[in-house]
Design goal:
This protein is 55% helix and 17% strand. It is built from eight helices and twelve strands. α7 packs antiparallel against α8. The structure holds adenosine-5'-diphosphate and magnesium ion (MG). The site of adenosine-5'-diphosphate (ADP) has 22 residues, from α7 and α8.
């Protein structure tokens, strides 16, 4: 359980803005802390070095005086007495052949060159401390005296050397720890942010899926997320009210218009019957009936498009089998195709499950087949197929008619658009608009392509999710 939560959160946390911000701040903090501490330490060391150097220079002056007054003998005496004091002074006086004449160093330290080439240098040396031979650190200066004698005057700086070593080893660790704390802190903060955003995302997904009654949950934090959630909820409330209002208008218009329209049609049929087949008014009545049918058709199509576009029907989506839809609709249009002299063929396919609203998908397919029969001259043929694709499933109607020119393929999807060439065939210009609206509702893509010759209309459905979106 914990493991899966870890896997679920960690990869996402790295991509959050909150995490990046924390990381950048921790990085800036670590760099500035390092620079600040480093600079302070460097300054302190420099002034300590300067102090040591001054002490050594004073000592050298003193030794030089002794040497001027009492010669080498005097110098050796002073060095011996200083060594006897067991202070932090480090001395070595060697003869021209390299043999030690006085001092507390057993051998000349490597890398120390006498003045004037040398200057101050730091070196390691061995010293007997409480019966133990230990490595120590010293800083000093060496001089070449008359006759090849050499004098080294230095001070023990081991304490400082150890401090510096401690500092250079601790600093990287401190920075590392700082970064680690930052990482953990950032992760915790980001997880919090992610949790809040997830709640908003989940609600949005449910609303997009058609459940307009959903609201973003509020916490008691009264922070910016809460005020965002509050605003979103106000907005949702407003949208829901508008949608409800629209729906009521559409419903009442639908009811108040559909009934009288049907009544009108019935009356016309009644008249047709009453006047008999020889009546002089028959043509006019037929025309009136056709006009009424067109009105009813337009009306139904507009209502269906509104319904599909409102997304309200998303809630009614189930797993449907496209090949069954194809079989049903094709069967329905068989007689019409036959009457027109067009071959309507259905490509065989297995069960093809997508998530959808069966009646709307059937209506969309019916519109495509209706167009194909209507615009394909007799002698032509139509192929209806449902097929599996890598991304889901395709529903295709291909005919051998005149097709739709490339430049009109977007325009014909708009409401009431009919091409000039179709002027003489009946229609409302709403068929393809409905197909497009149904495709949108299903997150599917409608493509109109060349069937050389003819039109190939395809609705590409996405793969049905394993379980319904929660
Ligand atoms: N299969 C087809 N072959 C040729 N043209 C077509 C085909 N389907 C649609 N069209 C063109 O697209 C226009 C819009 O189609 P549609 O929205 O179904 O309206 P309607 O069929 O009522 O005219 C049609 O008027 C026609 O010009
Ligand atoms: Mg049509």
């Amino acid at each position: 359980m914990r493991g899966s939560a870890f896997r679920r959160w960690v990869p996402r946390i790295f991509h959050t803005q909150a995490f990046r911000i924390v990381l950048v701040y921790v990085f800036i903090y670590a760099v500035s802390a390092t620079v600040l501490v480093g600079f302070t330490y460097w300054n302190a060391e420099r002034s300590l070095d300067a102090q040591t150097d001054q002490t050594i220079e004073a000592e050298v002056t003193g030794l030089n005086e002794q040497y001027q007054r009492f010669g080498f003998g005097g110098l050796i005496d002073v060095i011996n007495s200083r060594v006897a004091q067991h202070g932090s002074g480090v001395y070595l006086f060697v003869g021209p052949n390299g043999s030690a004449l006085a001092g507390n160093l057993t051998e000349w330290p490597a890398g120390v060159v006498p003045e004037p080439a040398g200057g101050f240098a730091e070196f390691d040396y061995r010293r007997n401390v409480q019966g133990q031979d230990v490595m120590r650190r010293a800083r000093g200066q060496a001089f070449l005296l008359i006759g090849g004698f050499q004098l080294l005057v230095a001070r023990d700086v081991s304490e400082r050397f150890l401090t510096r070593r401690l500092f250079t080893t601790t600093l990287p660790w401190s920075v590392g720890l700082m970064l680690l704390f930052g990482l953990v802190g950032g992760a915790v903060m980001s997880r919090d942010v992610l949790r809040r955003l997830d709640a908003i995302n989940r609600t949005s997904a449910l609303i997009v899926a058609g459940d307009f009654s959903r609201r973003v949950p509020l916490t008691q934090a009264h922070d910016e997320f809460d005020s965002l959630a509050e605003n979103l909820n106000f907005m949702l409330e407003r949208i829901e009210r508008l949608m409800k209002g629209m729906r009521e208008v559409v419903d009442s218009v639908a009811h108040d218009l559909r009934t009288p329209l049907n009544r009108l049609r019935n009356r016309l049929e009644e008249m047709q019957r009453r006047f008999g087949p020889d009546s002089a008014y028959l043509d006019d009545i037929d025309a009136a009936i056709a006009e009424t049918d067109r009105l009813i058709g337009t009306f139904n199509a507009l209502l269906l498009i509104a319904e599909a576009d409102s997304g309200m029907t998303r809630g009614a989506m189930t797993h449907i089998d496209l090949s069954a839809v194809v079989a049903d609709v094709a069967e329905l249009y068989g007689p019409l195709a036959e009457e027109k002299g067009v071959a309507l063929e259905v490509a065989p396919s297995g069960v093809l499950t997508v998530e959808g609203n069966r009646s709307l998908v059937s209506q969309a397919l019916a519109n495509l087949i209706d167009n194909a029969i209507k615009y394909t001259p007799s002698g032509g043929h139509i192929l209806v197929s449902a097929a599996q694709t890598p991304s889901g499933a395709d529903l295709t109607v291909a005919d051998s008619g005149p097709g739709i020119p490339q430049e009109d393929r977007v325009r014909v999807l708009d409401r009431f658009v009919r091409l000039e060439t179709s002027r003489n065939s009946p229609g409302t210009g709403l068929g393809l608009s409905l197909v497009a609206a149904v495709a949108r509702l299903h997150d599917a893509r409608l493509t109109l392509a060349d069937n050389t010759p003819g039109l190939k209309a395809t609705i590409s459905f996405p793969r049905a999710p394993a379980k319904k979106r929660d």
